[in-house]
Write a structure and sequence with these properties.
One of its GO terms (molecular function) is transmembrane transporter activity. The chain is built from 14 helices and no strands. By secondary structure, it is an all-alpha fold. The protein has a single domain (about 1-380), classed as Growth Hormone, Chain: A, CATH 1.20.1250.20. The model is unreliable at about 380-395 (pLDDT under 50).
Length: about 400
């Protein structure tokens, strides 16, 4: 899922020049992928609740590979290459919808209690590791020809496909799926009881990904235009803030356990770091200081995301977990989809205005976390029934 967007970031300027595209058109290669994923994630999440996680993941990975091949051959051989690339990206987006979001639900199925938080931290770190490595991989493949990235997707996906087929073992057997009405009533009850804090956590996750991909899009553009940094070096520079996010995600996931008060504090700290650093970035032109502050804001993302994952994954029982976590992944994809085109418009408007807008957005999320998620001390006691969904209190 992560490779599907991040590997393209370094080659977007070359694609723009080769196909004579506008900044908005080139951003759509990220956006259509993410919108397709956002639409299909809840559908595939529902199907994974009714059947099995693995049965959804395998064809999704195959479709992701086919979409990459179509984009690659479209760029290399077909007329109207841009149209074929977009069609392939849509297919990839649909395939991506059945990967990471289902994997998060599967993690919730297989692990409980503090171990679940630790593994979800590894999950978020692996997601981030993909973000760290993919700009470097994208830049390396881009040295051959800019559309070589599309042919790299199937090779990497085959590895993941084989691992899923042979190493993922779902525990036990699924009961007969409930009637749709009963399933829908259970979901409505979840959102009636837990809806307010779920909305805040969904929004927080979406904002994290919106700012992350938007800034990567912005950074990729200015590295070439303003600082004349290209190729592998550009990929390495793009990977620096992501590396800080990955490391922080891993450490956070291993330390939070099921301490809900600590999760809330870390979410507040993470968004505060983002808010402060985005405000300073509005006034900074020096590249080294810019990357340093961006790394600090990425630490904030790394503090927040594992906590958000644990809160959402533990909020419901196994029978509804696929849909609830998939809806969260859908919101994340919407954040990714919105990032590049909105940043493209803001870049044309004002660099300072761009970062001040981000400052206001992350400040709003910080206040929502403070006032709408209220965790009581009893929530931090170990749950005797490890299969029981976690409960949170809210105002």
């Amino acid at each position: 899922m992560t490779l599907g967007n991040s590997m393209l970031i370094p080659i977007l300027p070359a694609m723009k020049a080769s196909l004579d595209l506008s900044q908005m058109q080139v951003s759509l290669t990220i956006t259509v992928y993410s919108i397709a994923s956002a639409i299909f994630i809840p559908i595939l999440g529902y199907l994974s609740d009714r059947f099995t996680r693995k049965i959804i993941m395998i064809p999704s990975l195959i479709l992701f590979s086919l979409g990459g091949l179509l984009s690659g051959f479209g760029a290399a051989l077909f007329s109207h290459a841009y149209v074929w690339i977009l069609i392939g990206r849509i297919l990839q987006g649909i395939g991506a919808a059945g990967t990471a979001s289902i994997a998060m639900a599967l993690t919730g199925d297989l692990f409980k209690g503090g171990e679940q938080s630790r593994v979800l931290g590894i999950f978020e770190a692996s997601n981030g590791l993909g973000k760290v490595l993919s700009p470097i991989f994208g830049a390396i493949f881009g040295l051959l020809v800019w559309y070589a990235v599309f042919f790299a997707f199937p090779v990497m996906t085959v590895i993941a496909l084989l691992l899923v087929i042979f190493f993922i073992k779902e525990k036990g057997y699924r009961e007969a799926p409930p009637p749709f009405r009963k399933y829908a009533r259970a979901l409505l009850n979840v959102f009636h009881v837990e809806g307010r804090w779920l909305f805040v956590t969904y929004l927080a996750g979406g904002v994290c990904l919106f700012t992350l991909y938007g800034i990567l899009f912005f950074l990729s553009d200015i590295l070439e235009k303003q600082y004349e940094i290209e190729g592998v070096l550009k990929g390495i520079v793009l990977a620096i803030p992501l590396l800080f996010m990955v490391t922080t995600s891993y450490v956070t996931g291993s330390k939070i356990g099921k301490n809900f008060i600590r999760m809330k504090k870390l979410m507040i700290l993470g968004f505060t770091l983002m808010t402060v650093n985005y405000a300073i970035l509005a006034m900074i032109e020096n590249l080294f200081l810019f990357i340093f502050l961006l790394a600090l804001s990425s630490i904030g993302v790394g503090l927040a995301l594992p906590c958000i994952n644990s809160l959402i994954t533990g909020s419901v029982g196994k029978e509804n977990r696929g849909f609830v976590t998939s809806l969260y992944s859908s919101v994340r994809f919407i954040g990714v989809a919105a990032g590049p085109p909105i940043f493209a418009r803001l870049m044309d408007w004002s660099r300072a205005g761009l970062f001040l807008s981000l400052t206001g957005l992350t400040l709003l999320v910080t206040l929502l976390i403070i006032f709408l998620i209220k965790v009581s001390e009893k929530d931090d006691k170990p749950d005797k029934d490890k299969d029981k969904p976690f409960r949170y209190t809210y105002v």
